[in-house]
Structures are given as C-alpha cells and as structure tokens.
Amino acid sequence: MLKAVVSIVNFCTRFAYFTVAFALLICGFAVHYTVDHFAISTDTSKVFSKDVPWLQRKNEFDKLFPNRNEGYILAVVDAATPELATLARAELADKLAADKSVFKSVTQPGRGPFLTQNGLLFLPTEELAGITKSLTRSAPLIRALATDPSLRGVTGLVGFALAGVNSGQLTLDQTARPFNMAAAPIERVLADRPATFSWRELLNGSPSTPADVRKFIEATPVLDFNSLEPGKKGTDAIRSAAASLNFASRYQARVRLTGPVPIENEEFATVRDGAALNGVVTLAVVLLILWMALKSFRIIVAVMIALFIGLSITAALGLMMVGALNIISVAFAVLFVGLGADFGIQFSVRYRQERFKEPDLRKALIEAAARVGVPLTLAAAAVGAGFLSFLPTAYRGMSELGQIAGMGMLIAYITSITVRRCSTCSARPASMMRSALRPSPRSTIS
Questions:
Q1: Which domains does the chain have, with CATH numbers?
Q2: What predicted TM-score, i.e. pTM, was given to this entire model?
Q3: Is the pLDDT at 342 greater than 50, yes or no?
C-alpha cells in the first residue's frame, strides 16, 4: 500500500501539468453532466424502500382509500359574520375548483346538499327547539323584509314589531335586542365605516363564536416533487384567488393557509433562503481552519482546487447512481467538503514539516507521501466504510447518502494523493520556512 501511494505521488509530481489538466478535463465533464442531469426529489414518501413489508401494506391501504394520505392545503376563511364567511368560502372554493391544472380536488368540509337540507337535525334538541321557536315568532318580520329588502321594508318591519307590542304579542324588552342589533350597523354606515349584520346571531340569541365565523376549504394540489417547494403553485393560486376576489372589502374576510403542503413548503423555503448565507459562512469557516492549519495561501488554493474537483466528480457519480437526490442524500456535499478538507490538512501539514528538512520540492512531496500515506489511506477507508454501512438499511434516504458519501471519500482520497500534490508543486514555502532553509542555486524550490 505504501509503495503504491508513493509511486502515485511520484508519477503525479513528475507529470504535474498533465495530471492537473487531466483532472480539470474530468471535472469539466462532471460539471456538465451534473448541470444537465441534476434532479432532487422532495417527496418524503419515497425515502423508504418499496420492499419494506409495512410500506407495501400501507400502499395497499392507500389504494382502497386513494385520497386519505394525499398532501392537502387547508384554507382557513375568517370573516365578520358566519354568513359572510360562508359566502367567501363558497366563492373561493368555486374559483379554485375551476383550475384543474393546479388542484385535483377542492372540498368544503361541513357543507353539501345533505347538510344544507338536514344540518339543523344535528343540533342538540334544546338548541334546535330554541331556534325553531325564534323562527316561528319572527316569521312575519322575516317575511316582510324578504318581500321588500329595502329601507321601506325595514321601516315596515319596525312597524310590525311595534304593532305586536301594542297588541300584547311582544314586550318592549323582547324587541330591545333586535332593534339594538339593527341600529348598530345603521350607525356604522352613517359614519362611513364597514358594517355587518348577522341573522344567525339574531336567531341564536348570542354573539358568534370564533368557530362560527371560521370556515375551511380542503384543496388537494398537483405536487411537483422536482421543485424545492412541491406545492408552491397551489398555495400561490389560493392567495392570488383570494386577492382577486377582494375579500377584505367585500366580505371583511381574510384567508390563511395551513396543512401538510404549506408547512413543508415553508420548511423547504427556509432551507433555500438560508442556502446562500450558510454556504458563505461554511466556506469562510473552512478557509479559516485551513489558514490556521497551513498558514500558506498557495497551499490553501491547492486544497480548494482539489476539493472542487472531487466534489464535482462525486456529484456526477451520485446522480448516475441514484438518478435524483433526496432531501437527505443532498447532504453529501457538506460531508465531502468537511472530510475532504481534513485529508488535505493531514498531507499538507506533513509536507510543510518535510519541507523544513528537504529543499527539493518533489522529494519533500514524496517523503510526505511516505510518512502520511498509510494513515491517510486508513482514515479514508474507515470513513468510507462507515458511510457504506448505511447501504443495507431500508431507509432509502440514508442508504443513498451512505452510497454517495462513501464513494465521495474514495474520490477525496484519490484527489488528495494526485491533484492536491500536483497543485502543491507550485506552492511557495511560508516565510518561516524560507528563513529556515538556505537552498542552493540549483534548488527546485519554487
């Protein structure tokens, strides 16, 4: 093993320019392949192997109930009154249901022909009796307003109420609440402010609860798992529809989104929004660690070149092996940079030590390879074996991560004993090394 490593380092340093050019050529092909074939699946239901018995039983169950586990968006419509919330929900649901390219289905929980006709029968007996009694007592008033829904009809309604008081059928106390409820929106309209009136509150005899003024729409969108936010088209369509229907001014309503799809979209969006900052911070930390360990700008550049070449090759091979990355296997890049930089630090530190004793650059590199070749090989083999141990698991996300990361450790090891050595050939020793060494005019120190 040691002789093989030393022979490889000797060959690469002898033909340094050819080795670097060949590595860059492979890197170019790898980058081209990665750009053309890059794909990431955000479908969390596919992170397990299809051969798992419990997953096969689950799939059979899903075939019997196809809509049970589909990702959905729950649109919450809040308005000032139950009637306005119902109208706003119905209008929004109709608009969404018409867009078949974005939504598979749109339903309104708690609403339908059966419930519209028989919904009162689900109320407790005492509550239903109170509502029917109120409807019976208010029938003449409601009939008058329904016949003429204008200011004249309102004044007629007041006249009917006062006539009932005069005839002894009603008391003034019984008319106080309806008149107060009617007076409040009239005063708000005269003050040029938004006003609402709820017949349901009038019949129930009590103010509406938050549950009364909140309605739901369950929409099943068409998910695009090749996108970082699979349900973004669906959530954007709901928000756009609510804005175009002008809910705020027409119904004094607002629409909020919840459910599995919006929650997953926000999680993935957080990853996307922080990717640039996290990448910059990670790169800065890696460079800081390399500087603290190597104290040589040119050696650090050599390490970074080897890291980029190895990462591009690993990404291309990973896509060839798995077809599309998943939300777990995509982490191979972070693992490669962290562990690949460690390989570079191990060799480069040894190389700097040998450079104190040996003024000839190639000899210093070969001697460093002889000293660190076996430990570096064992480290790469141990880390690679650790990642490859994920392969037998039925957790497909971890299995693919282990497959790609394990291959990546092999590539990082190869680039460490080839490309990084050749790149180091152009690295100048640090000032402390130049002061410690007094090379002859024929020295090969660059």
A1: 2-51+273-436 (1.20.1640.10), 73-258 (no CATH)
A2: 0.64
A3: yes
